[in-house]
Amino acid sequence: MLSVVHSLINAIWLVIGLWWAFTALRTKRAVKAQKPSSRLVPVALLASGAMLLFSPWPAFDSLGWRWLAVSLPTAVLGLLLTAVGALLAIAARTRLGGNWSAAAVIKEGHELVSSGPYAWVRHPMYCGAFLAAAGTAFASGELRGVIALPLLLTGFWLKARAEERLLEQEFGARYDAYRHRVPGRILPAIL
C-alpha cells in the first residue's frame, strides 16, 4: 500500500509538470525582466532542493536516514498535503494566466492579479509548491527531504522578492496597497 501512495505522489508531480508545460504555451510577451545573473542563486537553491527531494543523488547514506518511521498514516498524510499544495499551485498558475513566467518579468499588458488564491498570499504558486514538497518530504520520512525544504523555501522567497521588485516598479501604489492588504509573501501572514 505504501508503494501506491508514493506512486500517487509521483503522479501528482507529473500532473503539475504537465500543467506548467501546457500553460506555458499561452503566456504573453515579456517587456521587462530581471537580470539573468540575479536568477542564479534562486535557481541553484530550487534545483538543489528538487534534486534532494526527487532523486537518490547524491547517494550519501546519511541523506537516507529516516527521521520519521515508515507508516501508512504518515504516507497518506504526506499524500494529502502534496495534493492540497498541488491544487493550490495549479489554481494560482491558472489564475495568473498569460502573466506567468519562469523568470521575474513584466509581460505585455501585465495585470496585477489579486483575487482567488492571490487574495490570501502574494505568491500562492510558491506556497502550493512548497506545501506539496513538504508533503512529499513527509511521506518519504528521509533526511534528504528535511534538507530540501529550507533550500526550496529560500529559493521561492528570493524569486518572489525579485518578482515583487518588478511589480513595485510597474504598479507603484497599487502594488504597495496589495502588499499591505496581503502580508504573506509565500506563507499566509508569516513569510
Shape: elongated
Estimate the mean pLDDT confidence. Answer: 93
Q: H/E series, N to C?
A: HEHHEHHH
For this structure, the quaternary state is single chain
Task: Characterize the largest beta sheet: strand count, sense, and whether it forms a barrel.
Answer: 2 strands, antiparallel
Q: Unreliable stretches, pLDDT < 50, 5 or more residues? A: none
Number of DSSP-assigned strands = 2
**Beta-strand content estimate:** under 5%
Gap from first CA to last CA:
36 Å
Count, helices: 6
Rg result: 17 Å
Helix content range: 55-70%
Strand-pairing-aware structural class: mainly alpha
Strand arrangement, major sheet:
1-2
Can you give a write-up of this model?
- With 191 residues, the chain is mainly α.
- 62% of the residues lie in helices and 4% in strands.
- It is built from 6 helices and 2 strands; from the N terminus they run H-E-H-H-E-H-H-H.
- The chain has helices at 2-24, 40-54, 72-96, 124-140, 143-171, 173-181, and strands at 30-33, 105-107.
- It has a two-stranded antiparallel sheet.
- The longest helix is centred in the last third of the chain and has 29 residues, at 143-171.
- It is elongated, with a radius of gyration of 17 Å.
- The termini are far apart.
- 34% of the residues are buried.
